[in-house]
Design brief:
The chain is α+β, with helices and mostly antiparallel strands. The protein is 17% helix and 36% strand.
Length: 128
């Protein structure tokens, strides 16, 4: 069985988030409506406004994170050169929590970005 995994981000402002992922990470915009559809590296990313329940999810309300310091989902970008990505994405407006940090016990270097809605993006480079 073959299938494609798509990540859905619920955001406050679709246009702002669409432009952020396009500008900072070079995502290709497939559809700029709500939901916006982007091709981000080898992943599809849907960006949509929140909303109330629907007939197929009658008890679910979709909303962006209420508190960016309480993690429920994160994107994880594995890169070949974390320092190059750090420099480029920072110049494009990415807000990094720290500079890349070496984690010898994990065999990687990593750092984190917050997107405009507070979603956490881990950027990591394997050192093994």
């Amino acid at each position: 069985m073959r299938f494609i995994v798509t990540v859905l981000l619920i955001v406050k402002d679709v246009k702002r988030s669409r432009e952020y992922y396009k500008h900072v990470f070079g995502a290709h915009v497939i559809d700029d409506d709500d939901p916006a559809t982007l091709r981000l590296a080898n992943t599809w990313l849907l960006i949509a406004r929140g909303g109330g329940p629907t007939d197929d999810k009658p008890t679910v309300t979709a909303a962006p994170p209420h508190d960016p310091d309480h993690l429920s989902i994160a994107l994880n970008f594995r890169v070949a050169d974390i320092h190059e990505c750090y420099k480029l994405w920072k110049s494009r407006g990415a807000h990094f929590l720290t500079e890349p940090k070496v984690h010898k016990d994990a065999g990687e270097i990593r750092c984190y970005i917050r997107d405009p809605d507070g979603y956490l993006i881990e950027v990591g480079q394997t050192t093994d």
